[in-house]
Amino acid sequence: MEALKALADGFGTTIKHLGRKPITEQYPEYKRPLPERTRARIILTRDPGGDERCVACFLCSAACPVSCISMEASAREKDGRRYAGWFRINFGRCIYCGLCEEACPTSAIQLTPDFEICKRDVLSMVYEKEDLLVDHGGKDQEYNFYRYAGVVTYARGKGEHEKEKAPVNIKSNMP
Ligand code: SF4
Ligand code: SF4
């Protein structure tokens, strides 16, 4: 009986769609706008001052489940600020999970909706820093890690820094 009902449901759905106008999008002539948070091609962004946001902390590399991010840390001579001497992503292995973006404290690494990066030669899917680095801030143009971390730590108390919430009173959670 259940099998018959399943069969009837299946045919019912087919019949329901028979009279409908087909929706065919003519890709690549028409490119459907994708949500801003679509996870595809990865970029390395810059802070509002134009500096590279990446501080070569390796967190994205550690978070990546397929180990497709590698880099080498360097430091600027003038102020010791860290940056990636080289930075490499193997898009042939990337599964576009977005964990690297979640892990990044500086908002440097971001996934974008640009999915048209497929190539026949898998070796050309290895992107170097010069292929990844863009000249804008991506999804958050204003964020600057150094405005929030390190620089003002000694100037103010807990919960008094820019956009920082007041500390939670842990004793208030006790029964
Ligand atoms: S999107 Fe996922 S798989 Fe791709 S580089 Fe980031 S963490 Fe790795
Ligand atoms: S992209 Fe972000 S998480 Fe990865 S090394 Fe640079 S600062 Fe760290």
Structural class by secondary-structure content: alpha+beta
Side by side, the strands of the main sheet go 2-3-5
* Uncertain stretches: none
Report the span from N to C terminus: 55 Å
Number of strand segments: 5
H/E element order: HEHEEHEEHH
Mean pLDDT: 90
Share in β-strands: 5-15%
Helical fraction equals: 10-25%
Q: Biggest sheet, open or closed, and with what strands and sense?
A: 3 strands, antiparallel
Write the layout of secondary structure elements.
Blueprint lengths: L1 H17 L23 E3 L14 H5 L5 E7 L6 E9 L8 H5 L5 E3 L14 E2 L1 H4 L12 H4 L27
Describe it.
By secondary structure, the protein is an alpha+beta fold. The chain is 20% helix and 14% strand. The chain contains five helices and five strands; from the N terminus they run H-E-H-E-E-H-E-E-H-H. The protein has helices spanning 2-18, 59-63, 99-103, 129-132, 145-148, and strands at 42-44, 69-75, 82-90, 109-111, 126-127. Strands 2-3-5 form a three-stranded antiparallel β-sheet. A two-stranded antiparallel sheet has the order 1-4. The protein is extended. The protein starts with a helix and ends in a 27-residue tail after the last helix. It binds iron/sulfur cluster (SF4) (2 copies). One iron/sulfur cluster binds at residues 63-66, 68-69, 89, 94-100.
